[in-house]
Amino acid sequence: MSRNTLWTAQEAAAATGGRAIGDWAVAGISIDTRSLAAGDLFVALKAARDGHDFVAQALEKGAGAALVSRIPDGVPADAPLLIVEDVQTGLEALGRAGRARSAARVVAVTGSVGKTSTKEMLAAMLSPQGRTHAAVASYNNHWGVPLTLARMPKDTEFAVIEIGMNHPGEIAPLARQARPHVAMVTTVAAVHLEAFDDVAGIAREKAAILEGLEPGGVAVLNGDLEVSAVLAEVAAARGCDIRWFGRTAPRYTLQSVSLHDAATRADLQIEGRGITAEIQSLGAHFAMNAIGALAAVTALGADLDLALSGLAHWAPVKGRGARLTVPVPGGGEVTVLDDAYNANPTSVAAALAVLAATPGSGRRIACLGDMGELGPEALALHAGLAELPAMAALDRVYCVGPMMGALHEALPETRRGGCVATSAEAAQVLTRDLRAGDIVLAKGSLYMQMARVVDAIREIGQGSASS
């Protein structure tokens, strides 16, 4: 099926100030030849490799054109190109133009934990109400945000933009590109402490998302934080309308949470109306994300009941708390909680609570990789996980990486699984130890590649199915 035109050569050249070669039109935008679809504009960004090295391959795969700063080697002079001074700057300009030409109502989401899950919740809530465009995966950085904006179809009615950071000063420029009508901060936690003096500094950086708000915009903020006053101070200085959410918030209140089988039930008060929301995954943190997302949806002017209907169909995605069952040789199956994408002390605590609450008669096993960017207190924060209440419900904890060695030492011997350097080693050790009925959580910072553990367990299931 053919796709609608996203950008013509003339439109893209006008947006970027670049020079178009050929009279082309593209239906999408790609930064990776592995996922490029025919008719996409290939953006030759510089990352681990220079994207110009892949332009010829992209055009061979059917790219409609390529955004470049020079004609790459092996590419004909008459190839369909958009030549700009700098590819990153060109992508940003295309993103700003994509936002400027759209009449969409835009919500932007940031936070130390829960950005991607909340973004996906918002997309599920808004999709029944109009044409909705949302960031793919965790595309929330200096290239992810402009890419999401540049990919936004002209007829989009709602857009959900995720904004992240690793260092001070990163959020505000991205928020100004997104120009949201509603900006949400999910939570603020001890993450990226290598780059900040304290959690209050992190809160100020998260609150910088408000710098991009459109006139009359709404700030949706977590009222249950030790640094909520910092968020309030920034919002007041910006003159924002604030909608607080949380257990202590007056208008968007999470009254209680209960976990049943594989679902979470949340009792909410929204603008004086009592509501029970069903979330098709375990986790009290999902309930907190949901009440915040519902506050954002109503701030956008969307329908609350349709949003609740959309929420009922939402489930976590791969690497973000997805749950899968895998058959094992000899009969039976294991349950895997795939939360492998990233980790910090707050998200690990939430994931362990989910593991502890997951029903089943087998062992509860956590496979935890190092948490990055925690600064001088990193080892103490890793060891401190041993004191979490959920640990009492676990049978084995496998520790992966040098910093998780501190947790291994802090655990009682009866709870210690293996302590290894890499996720590849963890996959070998853990899969040998699995039994039918086990429930396994895989979690760690992205660079630890804890998805290898999930993949190794999946391979056991494929072998079992074949046998």
Describe this entry's structure for a reader.
There is one protein chain. The chain has 467 residues and is of the alpha/beta class. The protein has three domains: 7-85, Udp-n-acetylmuramoylalanyl-d-glutamate--2,6- Diaminopimelate Ligase, Chain: A, domain 1, CATH 3.40.1390; 102-312, Mur-like, catalytic domain (UDP-N-acetylmuramoyl-L-alanine:D-glutamate ligase); 322-466, Alpha-Beta Complex (Protein-Tyrosine Phosphatase, Chain A). It has helices spanning 9-16, 55-60, 87-100, 115-126, 144-150, 171-178, 199-207, 228-238, 284-300, 304-312, 345-357, 378-384, 404-410, 423-433, 451-466; strands at residues 7-8, 19-21, 25-26, 28-30, 40-43, 65-68, 81-83, 105-110, 132-134, 158-162, 182-185, 218-222, 241-246, 252-260, 263-270, 273-279, 322-327, 333-338, 364-369, 396-400, 416-420, 439-443. The protein has a nine-stranded mixed β-sheet with strand order 9-10-8-11-12-13-14-15-16, with helices on both faces. Strands 17-18-22-19-20-21 form a six-stranded mixed β-sheet, sandwiched between helices. A five-stranded mixed β-sheet has the order 2-7-6-5-4. α9 (284-300) runs antiparallel to α10 and α14 (423-433) packs across α15. The longest helix has 17 residues, at 284-300. The model has no long low-confidence stretch (mean pLDDT 93). Involved in cell wall formation. Catalyzes the final step in the synthesis of UDP-N-acetylmuramoyl-pentapeptide, the precursor of murein. GO terms for molecular function: ATP binding; UDP-N-acetylmuramoyl-tripeptide-D-alanyl-D-alanine ligase activity; UDP-N-acetylmuramoylalanyl-D-glutamyl-2,6-diaminopimelate-D-alanyl-D-alanine ligase activity.
